[in-house]
Amino acid sequence: MNRDPESRMLRRTRRVLTVQIWAVSSLLVAVLGALAWIVVLDGQHETAEHTIGWSIGRGVGETPPGCVWLFTEEGRAPAGTAPAGMPLTGSWNAVAATRNPVDERVSMNGTVYTVRTEIRDGRVVQAFFDEHYQIADREHLLTAFLLVEVLVVVISALVGHFFAGRAIRPLGEALRRQRTFVADASHELRAPLTRLHTRAQLLARRDPDPELDQLVKGTRELGEVVEDLLLSAQLQASKPPLEPVEMGLLAEEAVAGEAPRARERGLRIELHRDERPYLVRGVQTALRRVLTALLDNAIGHTPPGGLIEVRLGFTDGRHVEISVRDTGVGFEQSDAERLFERFARGEHGDGRRFGLGLALVREVVAGHGGTISAQGVPGDGATFTLRLRSPGA
Asked: With a threshold of 0.85, does the pTM exceed it?
């Protein structure tokens, strides 16, 4: 599974587009369903009121519809047997006393009734409209809405996923071409930059001069940027096969390689590890670049007389943990995440706690299924902690 940031960004964009299409489709169906529900409900209430009015107007001399029960003062009972609870004595007495009509809805006998009590021809009349069939119609309508909504959710998710994929395909192709260009350009630049750096070193040795020293430093840093670009493009284009890597040996090699430069700056580098293997599964060249970048970062931000400590250990028996701690200028903890952004610049030090170095470190670590974190205090150094999974964990 490719874990590079650009692939994650493309997958995240596709998910966002899919969710947006799904949400708009679902919301549209929900709004249409709500409008249909309102129209049906309003029509049913109007039907109930019209039926009750028609039944009261025709009086007891006519047989009311099957869903209506009509009560008058003559015994307060219609022909046949009325359901329990009819008539409503409270409403009946209130209308008889005030002469004002009362409209209400009551639940009883397992159904809902629309009830009207009024004075008609000088007598109290009370009509009940049974909403049983209307309730059944609403339940069927609601079931249909839910089924349609489920179908829309499924279909819109599939269609959204398909069209989102088509929408971001040109972006993926553009990113692929960009990586190819970066890889080709970096590869072509690496050889002439190496020659330029070598010639600058020869000139500086033959004729020591501060300007030549700066030229050597500049060509070295430019070569490192090109190497970073090339490695980043290679990692994103295709993930190399993973193999067992002994991080203890890589740490020793990295510390030994940076020791001369550290001594020139008046720094000490100490490696703390047990005499045991620290195996992880990964790409050896990429992990070596990670350690080199972290040490380069520490050296560049630690003043003369400072200390850089590299520690290796195990956490929970499943992860190898490597920390690089310096006694340098440090940083605000609120800037910890920004340090891993491409070309983000630090405010102190002359190393590369900016540019592609730390951004590439995070890419490599994420590609290995690991994590890296940074803790710092202004004026009191920084610690970068790398965690990688052990084989078989």
From this structure: no
